[in-house]
Amino acid sequence: MTDPAITPELVQKHNLTPEEYEKLKAVLGRVPTYTELGIFSVMWSEHCSYKNTRPLLKTFPTQSPRILVGAGEENAGILDIGDGLAIAFKIESHNHPSAVEPFQGAATGVGGIVRDIFTMGARPVCAANSLRFGPITAAGEPGPAVANNRRLFGGVVAGIAHYGNCFGIPTVAGEIYFDPSYEGNPLVNAFCLGVLRHGQIVRGHARGVGNPVFYVGPATGRDGLAGAAFASQDLTAESAEQQRGAVQVGDPFMEKLVCEACLELLATGAVAGIQDMGAAGLTCSTCETAARAGTGIEIELDKVPQRAPGMTSYEIMLSESQERMLIIVHRGREAEVKRIFDKWDLPWAEIGVVTDTGRMVVRHHGQVVADIPARKIADESPVYERVAREPEYLQAVRAFCLDGVPDTTNPAAHLLALLAWPTIASKNWVYRQYDHMVRNNSVVGPGSDAAVLRIKEDSVPAPPNAASALRPVPEKFIALSVDGNGAYVYLDPYEGSKIVVAEAARNLACTGAMPLGATDNLNFGNPHNPELFWQLKESVRGLADACRAFNAPVTGGNCSLYNQHPNGPIDPTPTVAMVGLIENPEHITTQWFKDEGDVILLLGELVDTSDPLLGLGGSAYLQLIHGMKNGTPPRCDLAREKELHLALRALIHSGVVKSAHDCSEGGLAVALAEGCISQSVARATPRLIGAQVDLTPLTEAPGRDGIRLDALLFGETQGRILISVDAVNAAKVLAQARILGVPTARLGTVGGDALRLQVPGAELNCPVRDLHDRWWNAIAEAMH
Amino acid sequence: MKAKIVVMPKQAVLDPQGKAIQNALTQMGYHGIGAVRVGKYLEIELTNSDPEAARQQIDAACHKILSNPVIEDYRFEIE
Amino acid sequence: MKAKIVVMPKQAVLDPQGKAIQNALTQMGYHGIGAVRVGKYLEIELTNSDPEAARQQIDAACHKILSNPVIEDYRFEIE
Amino acid sequence: MNFAVLQFPGSNCDQDVVHALRHVLGHSVELRWHKEASLGAADAVVVPGGFSYGDYLRTGAIARFSPVMEAVRQFAAAGGLVLGICNGFQILCEAGLLPGALIRNRSLQFRCEHIFLKTSTPDSPFTNRIPPDKLLRLPIAHGEGCYYADADTLARLKANHQILWRYVNAQGEITADANPNGALDHIAGICNEGRNVAGLMPHPERASEPILGSTDGRLILESMIAALASRPTAAG
Ligand SMILES: Nc1ncnc2c1ncn2[C@@H]1O[C@H](COP(=O)(O)OP(=O)(O)O)[C@@H](O)[C@H]1O
Ligand SMILES: [Mg+2]
Questions:
Q1: In the sheet where B72-78 sits, what is the strand order?
Q2: Which ipTM was obtained for this model?
Q3: Residue A329 DSSP code
Q4: What is the pLDDT at residue A466?
């Protein structure tokens, strides 16, 4: 087969600008071959090169004494958790593939991030995800758009379940929002965390000239050809159609075997470097390993296992067939690779060798089809400082006031409606499809503010046979939360992004955990659009400031730009997964109320009265009840947040806190209701408990009189946490909290079979059974 | 009348199940087993009497919900 | 040669998938949709050349592994 | 006691069973790779959960042909105790060591949640330690847990008291709501006629420590241990 001639049209089709093409020629010193053009197009795509975002990512805080492998160094960052143990974690998007084929798109998203983790030498021990879809409910008869949103949502969830369940990793946390801005462009961000000993960290380096290069895993097919490039352009009907011919299909069974075999092989010490074949497959893994090590690499494509006959070198290099790994083995120890991969009945092939030329050389049918300076293509990719301009819509957002918004006249109905709003409603329809308990470590599963996972002996990869010399693994507890309210970020990218991080940290604090670090996924629109780029820039500034405030360095992440659909771009949606540590199992705290007679306290201000919108800007209440996504979102005071989290942890450590739950979407009323209804004992068996709360005395304080009822109940003032304590401790806790500098108020008591909420001029009396059933069944009803 | 529908993964699409079955058969000692592909088979009772209408209807259903055109092909007979 | 195998749930066995498809088709406005049953379809490439040997082998494989006689029936053709 | 826990490609609850038996209950456990033809000095065998061979074709269909399953067959024929959990239950049914089959959940969805079980009889090596009125709260995690058997088989199961556990609600009643997968007669677990081989869909190993929310699963594992302890000699 003859390769097509390199024409300007072909260059353009590869998403390279004329300037980039000139640069490419300068790097090569000549006109590229067709295969080389393909290689450059994926390596220099946004997805692989971060050409539009690298300057921004540099502003993240990335240092802490716990960092063992920092952001950008490897496939995932690694943090020390003490006693010689470490965790590797990362979040990654699979948005565009999921739009084309939701089941396989989401499944392979999970597969990809799990590989990134075991590539570091860690045993993957839990997964999480962050999802966005268009609305799945409609006021009247649902139209085709809603039907399509449901199809995407159902498919994505089934795909995640399929992959994670079969692989055997518990999916313990996640978050989902439904909003029209994601119609046709769902977001699927998958997170994975693994555990290892410090000495088990491995690198994606092609080290040791003369070392053989192995390919392991299933044969290469034409799947996902140039997927990285696809992810780096606007999602259009046309681009999606092109990608259809080449959907990647995941095989979680294969991945489980590849993972176990790789961990077994790593324990032998025979491996010099290892890297998964993720985006841009063989291209990216060979280039990057050589570039990192400053070596060269030569591979022979005829030796690469192939699934389809007659594959061209272009296709083999750009294929994104799943579950494949590239392993550089110390020369002389090839037999160990063969022994272990044969034991697991896995295909493997020796396809090349590490060289000292600094070049990535690819041969096929006896000819050199690519010969590229590895470090240059990896390191000298174009970098752009895009133009940023504040979007016009923000003027209207800032001008928004509550004057035209009537106060709630039926707070009980509005509370029920909010609880049944899919974004707020229980996500049990989703997480009951995920095995969230496999591996016997899920101490707090999905359904509380943050998940808590136990680390124990079998959480780390088995050491080599000299195992007895190693210290036993002490039990430790990792807390995990994923957050990202896109509406807030849309309405104020800087403040909104601070809130994303603050909420993740608050969720960790509620379980008793101390933040260790964070990973982020930047889901934004086309960076060439100055207004969209401004959103990105401001958002990164907010994320960075907040991560700094909580001492949560960013250990890595992923960028997904070009998220858009025919009606426009998505809401800018940075998602943040924050990981924390709990040293003592007795400190693990859940969000639901525990016992009759316990006292409910509010840590934080009842309402931020200095906010003209009283916390209603961008709120779920305004969106759902008044159909407005408008107004400046609540302000996030990082210093006060930090004090609040410290105080809560101190109270939890003193052993008096029986439950802790932060106020987020839906405000105080929803948080109280969730305290009453969110504990599930078993299938169809919630543990319901009522509460009696009187807010009237609190509204008599100066500055708060005459406060709007909707703001009081449903406003989303930040920095608020509900806790419950035994009545005998209540006074002590109030005093302690004040000493810790956090405003604290007694709201009422736990008990009865209804949530009774007294507010000036009204009393809500909602049987907990009703609250529960609306909240628990809402998504299942929409999906039925 | 009855529609008999076969839905198969597209040739270019990975069929991990087929591969696993092929390996299992070979390991169990069956000889000469080549590629295995696994799909779905549906039988739908049709209470309509017009075969041409039925054909159109089943074709539409195959396209819209019985197969996933992104990764699967289908064929059918009406009997 | 190729073996084409159909494996269907036995009549007595609940087929929730068939039921779900039947409901979905009816809800989408297709008319005259009766019972739907969903089974598996396997295509196995055979590199042997003796059709009779192939037949025996495939029959054995269907009986032993490709179907579960507790819940499924099978039929096949060799082409 | 010596437990053998089987390990197929795709098993993923093997470590969990090892953890419960070794670290929680203090017994000795050995993993047995599917290619091994012997069970060593095992007193009892546990076939753990997971997705052996990716659950391709049918759950348990390919795993049953592993060499180690031949050893299990002999072990069971000699009266040895064999417990299949979840995918292990599916494998034992496919292998013909237990009657019936497990088919797709009626919801067509995977289900992971706690359920309640009522034990039908203490008369088995898997239930002897379970107090008569005790409801067990255990997790399930499966997509294909709907137990099916033909009418004759079901009649025999009942006549011989081979149904060991049924899904019930928190009050111990058999209700449609309490059945997570549509299982025939609400069957969650059964034993063979010889009462030495049992399988169940719920995961006792995931309910053996207070920190994981339930210790009810220990009663099943402890029943096995008690049965083994009261035997004159180990089978094998
Ligand atoms: N939003 C982000 N924040 C911080 N680091 C990021 C972000 N996006 C990407 N990175 C880092 O850039 C590096 C390259 O990422 P990526 O190309 O996604 O890795 P992979 O090759 O595994 O797909 C990684 O170390 C990643 O953690
Ligand atoms: Mg990677």
A1: B72-78, B2-9, B33-46, C33-46, C2-9, C72-78
A2: 0.95
A3: E
A4: 56
Chains that touch A (3 or more CB pairs under 8 A): B, D
Per-position DSSP letters for A403-430, written without gaps between them: GGSPPPS-HHHHHHHHHHSTTTS--HHH
In this predicted model, what pLDDT tens digit does every residue of D8-31 receive, in sequence order?
999 999 999 999 999 999 999 999
Active-site residue set of D: 86, 203, 205
Q: Can you give the pTM of this predicted structure?
A: 0.96
In the block, tokens 């209701």 appear at: A673
**Model confidence band, residue D120 (pLDDT cutoffs 50, 70, 90):** very high
Q: What is the whole-number distance in angstroms between the Cα of residue A70 and the centre of ligand 1?
A: 11
Q: Is the shortest distance between the CB of A305 and ligand 1 below 6 Å? A: no
Task: Please work out, in degrees rounded to the nearest 5, the angle formed at the alpha carbon of residue A424 by the alpha carbons of A684 and A706.
Answer: 120
Q: At what angle do helices A252-268 and A334-343 cross, to 10 degrees?
A: 140
Ranges in chain A, pLDDT < 50: none
- A707 Cβ neighbours under 8 A, 6+ residues apart: A607, A609, A614, A699
pLDDT per position as a tens digit, D129-186 = 999 999 999 999 999 999 999 999 999 999 999 999 999 999 999 999 999 999 999 9
Chain C contacts of D103, Cβ < 8 Å? 9, 13-14, 71
CATH of domain D2-229: 3.40.50.880
pLDDT at A230 (0 to 100): 66
- The yes-or-no answer on residue A565 being catalytic is no
Output the pLDDT for position A703: 78
Distance from the Cα of D176 to chain C's closest Cα (Å) equals 16
* pLDDT for position A238: 67
With an 8 Å Cβ cutoff, the interface of chain A facing chain B consists of 100-101, 103-104, 218, 221-223, 244-249, 251, 253-254, 307-308, 321-322, 345
Catalytic hit among A94, A162, A587, A645? A94
Does the pLDDT at position B11 exceed 90? no
Note the pLDDT tens digit of each residue in A2-28.
788 999 999 998 999 999 999 999 999
Closest CA–CA distance from residue A717 to any residue of chain D (Å): 34
| CATH class for the domain made up of B2-78 | alpha beta
Chain A 141-160, CB below 8 Å of chain D: which residues? 158
Query: Which residues are CB-neighbours of A51 under 8 A, at least 6 positions away?
Result: A44, A381, A382, A383, A384
Q: Using a 6 Å cutoff on CB, does residue A277 contact ligand 1? A: no
**Closest to A225 (Cα-Cα) out of A302, A314, A305:** A314
**DSSP assignment letter at A384:** -
D218-232 tens-digit pLDDT: 999 999 999 999 987
Burial class (CB in 10 A: 0-12, 13-18, 19+), D176: exposed
A94 is known as an active-site residue = yes
Q: With 60 as the cut, is the pLDDT of residue D235 above it?
A: no
Q: Where are the domains of chain B?
A: 2-78
Q: Which residues of A636-675 are buried (b: 16+ CB within 10 A; e: fewer)?
A: bbbebbbbbbebbbebbeeebbbbbbbbbbbbbbbbbbbb
- Residue for token pair 């090169």: A49
d(C-alpha A350, C-alpha A215), whole Å: 6
Q: Is the CB of A227 under 6 A from ligand 1?
A: no
The Å distance, Cα A375 to ligand 1 centre, comes to 17
B20 in contact with chain A, both atoms CB, cutoff 8 A: yes
Domain spans in chain D, listed from the N-terminal domain onward: 2-229
To which CATH superfamily is domain A589-784 assigned? PurM-like C-terminal domain (3.90.650.10)
Using DSSP's 3-state secondary structure scheme, residue A685 falls into strand
Strand boundaries in A75-178, DSSP class E? 77-82, 85-93, 123-133, 171-178
Check if A46 has its Cβ closer than 6 Å to any atom of ligand 1: no
pLDDT for residue D236 is more than 60? no
